[in-house]
Amino acid sequence: MKVAVCARESHINSPVDQRFGRCPYFVVVDVDSGDWEGLPNTGCHSGGGAGIQTAQLLVNAGVKAVLVDRIGPNAMEVLARAGIQVYEGISGTVSQSVEAYRQGHLKLLSQPNSPRHSRRGRS
After folding, report:
1. Cα–Cα distance for residue pair 13/15, rounded to 1 Å
2. Close Cβ partners of 31 (under 8 Å, ≥ 6 residues apart)
3. Model confidence over 38-64: pLDDT tens digits?
4. In CATH, 2-108 is 3.30.420.130
């Protein structure tokens, strides 16, 4: 099963990134085989809708779970519609967070844990 982890760099020992839509990479780990790959987050530089674009990237990558620190309502909705589970509580490195997931130490989210972003100041 493929699990995606928000990461600052594209490798298994990368520090995790707290942001979902704006993290620069995801490390996608097959928890059964231990194989992994770095996946650039193509949505992270978008002017708006980064969470939605990022969620769609992971849907297209075939992941079944996402490990995050924070995630907003729009991204959460896209992932939920695709049947992708979202877990919070990552810390340290990608590898450490995957191990925490394997041991059942991360919390399954049923709703977003970050507010919708405001568009104040934009015309």
Report:
1. 7
2. 1, 2, 3, 98, 101, 102
3. 999 988 877 778 899 999 999 999 999
4. yes
